[in-house]
Amino acid sequence: MGRSGVQVNKAHKTRVSSKSSRNLHKTSLQDRGRIGKPKGNHVKGAKAARLQRAKMRAAVLKEKMASGGLTSAPRVIVLFPLSASMDLNSLGEDVLKLLSTDGDVTSSSTVASSEYKLRATVADLIAFVASANEDISSLIDSFGSQCLSVLRSIGLPSTAVLIRVYLPSEFKKENKLKKMCASRLASDFMSLISPELSLNDENPYFLVCLQFMGLLKAQRLSVPHWRKQRPYVVAQKVGMLVDDKTPGKCTLLLSGYLRARKLSVNQLVHVTGVGDFQLSKVEVLKDPFPLLNERRKQNSMELDDSHDEEVLRSLVPDPMKQEPLVTENTPDPLAGEQTWPTEAEMAEADRNQKQGKPKKRSLPRGTSEYQAAWIIDEIDEEDSDNGDFDDDRMVLDRGEDQYSNQDQDFEDDKETLYVQDMDNETHNDSEMMDDENLTREQYEDQIKKIKEAHAEDEEFPDEVETPIDQPARKRFAKYRGLKSFRTSPWDPNESLPQDYARIFAFDNVARTQKLVLKQALKMEGEEEESRDDCVPTGSYVRLHIKEVPLVAASKLFSIVSTKPIIAFGLLQHESKMSVLRFSLKKYDGYEDPIKTKEELMFHVGFRQFVARPVFSTDNISLDKQEMERFLHPGPFSLASVYGPISFPSLPLVVLKISDADAPAFAAFGSLKSIGPSKIILKKIILTGYPQRVSKMKASVRYMFHKPEDVRWFKPVEVWTKCGRRGRVKEPVGTHGAMKCIFNGVVQQHDVVCMKLYKRAYPQWPERMYPQLL
């Protein structure tokens, strides 16, 4: 008997079959791969899969109807040349002529096309136009490359590429050049590049426009997420209403299509480059470019301005529901005053006292409990023998040494430092320094010579010189020493500047953001009949924005024909000032230095404002960040600024502004977090030079110039550039020299250093918005 050629294996024996195998017959073949184990007490089968597919289809259909329906706002098309040699006038005219019903190009840049069932304004779509010739290197010039970097940082919408071929009608050469241009552009656009449309002498603009409009109609538009979360209006008309009751102010009128989401008349709006304002009225006007066949039958003489601006509906804000325009917090001058403790606080203090008495310690007079945690527990043997204690000593934060590997090396050598044979001290340790009898001029010249000799070896940009005419304990009064930068505590609410009383802070930023976005989504999902204060998406509206500075409104009125003017609806709390943290990187093409607290223009999503940031290292594992004096190229840094609250994540573009030249693209990044509790520390390094060295002991000079300063900074650890670590033992002489003990042999050419830290804050900008200049 013949056997089949197909191998048949014996089935695996199981006592109990799994739930998924028992329910496999209930699932269609299409969904067997995606349906996993059931969750909960119910079984997901074919019905659940069908419901999920129906929801997805409904969501896609709703998005398609919102972006391309009869009542949707016109699509914004941007024609962007990649080089200065490209002329877009004829291409723009052909696009408008193709979309217009009668074939004539009107003065307006918005047309309605009933044939393509869409309206367009000449940016839901960016069409990059390249000029191709035999020189492929000139396809994108330097300015075009810089603009591409800016657009990528903000977030590109849907894109298309048009290639203008300057060759005679030779099919082979044209295709070869087109492939070379497409290969060159693919490195810049990658997956964003669409099928290229080539233009030559025999394939004019008008024919390519037919292909281009077909691509626009069929393409599903992708919009950056931050534009979907807020309603906005791209103004087509700008007007002003001057009121004599408010001098210097006026009511700004912006007319345009409402996009993305519904707008409430009780919301605050932000006019780009001007600021945040309240609405006095919102008027829903008749659509000036309706997408209906009846428009063809109407006479063009009847479509005057008064007819197009017919008011269909008018909305007025409710004073009880309108969101107040609060930008800065009003500081309370008595908020920091000491008050009498309550009964609960006194009872808690009694309980803490009964639990156990703290160990008695000898502390300087006037030392608080917080400062007492910084003082070294082990007192020098010399001080214990004499029974004296210096009241003029700087406090030092020791932190948790057992968690720091770097500090553990020094702890291992503590016995070496403290169990030194005092008999080995030479007479050089106690005698006067050689510069005790020098005059002031000779003393300064000697310091200058030593500094110049070590200038070539200065690898630390944080090194500063101690002034001679001012005590170091006063000059560096705001600085302190840290035993461990990672583990030493620093109170975030200690000695805050006055500007911190003007800002707002959230207890939980993530929770607040979730509630705000949920509230905005709820308003979007409500029916139009249930909300009488909202305007639906796609309506042609006129916003009455009150109390706008007259100077800024005049500038907007003059540039409306050349530059886009956009008004965004703000979410809750987005008008209040706080401390914003940005993760940013310096642009590779920008070579000038960017200094901390330098005036820069920040473009954060829909906002642009002027700020003076403080740069710091971006280390998520630490609660403290070290300040950077300059924004260094290469890695990402953290920038902290005072600015209006915007919920992350939002793209960031930083421009360097100057009075003479145009703004230059300097850096890019994104909004990382909101909150003033992050600690940024500015580090300085004081340097001294060994004069006499005896094995592990050295007499160091020129770090300080007074013995009182040596006693003040005595608790702070010192270290050398060759890797030795030690402590200050005592001052020597009257010119600020000191005796130090290290954990190893010190070289004569070594440099002794001391690190000090103070908290750094951003600077409040003198001007917030560029249009108010």
Structural class: alpha+beta
Largest sheet: 6 strands, mixed
Rg for CA atoms: 36 Å
CATH topology of one domain: Rossmann fold
Please indicate the percent range of residues in DSSP E strands (runs of 2 or more). Answer: 25-35%
Please give a structural write-up.
The strands form 5 sheets. A 6-stranded mixed β-sheet has the order 2-3-1-4-5-6, with helices on both faces. It has a 6-stranded antiparallel β-barrel with strand order 7-9-18-12-11-19. The longest helix is centred in the first third of the chain and has 23 residues, at 46-68. Among the domains are: 76-223, Rossmann fold (3-Layer(aba) Sandwich), CATH 3.40.50; 228-289 and 310-327 and 534-569, Translation factors (Elongation Factor Tu (Ef-tu), domain 3, Beta Barrel), CATH 2.40.30; 501-512 and 574-680, Elongation Factor Tu (Ef-tu), domain 3; 682-758, translation elongation factor selb, chain A, domain 4 (Thrombin, subunit H, Beta Barrel). The protein has 19 helices and 33 strands. The N and C termini lie far apart (99 Å). By secondary structure, the chain is an alpha+beta fold. The radius of gyration is 36 Å and the shape is globular.
Features:
Rossmann fold, Elongation Factor Tu (Ef-tu), domain 3, six-stranded mixed sheet, six-stranded antiparallel β-barrel
Give me the secondary-structure topology.
Blueprint: H1 19-22, H2 46-68, E1 75-81, H3 89-99, E2 110-113, E3 118-121, E4 125-132, H4 142-154, E5 158-165, H5 171-189, E6 197-199, H6 205-218, H7 225-228, E7 232-234, E8 237-242, E9 249-259, E10 263-264, E11 268-271, E12 275-285, H8 294-297, H9 305-308, E13 311-315, H10 343-355, H11 369-372, H12 381-386, E14 396-397, H13 405-412, H14 414-418, H15 440-453, E15 463-464, H16 472-475, E16 481-482, H17 509-525, E17 534-535, E18 540-549, H18 550-559, E19 566-569, E20 577-586, E21 600-604, E22 607-611, E23 614-616, E24 624-628, E25 637-644, E26 651-656, E27 664-674, E28 679-694, E29 697-701, H19 707-712, E30 718-720, E31 725-732, E32 737-742, E33 752-759
Parallel strand pairs: 1-3, 1-4, 4-5, 5-6, 14-16, 15-28, 24-28
Antiparallel strand pairs: 2-3, 7-9, 7-19, 8-9, 9-18, 10-17, 11-12, 11-19, 12-13, 12-18, 20-25, 20-27, 21-22, 21-26, 23-24, 23-25, 26-27, 28-29, 28-33, 29-32, 30-31, 30-33, 31-32
Helix pairs in contact: 3-6
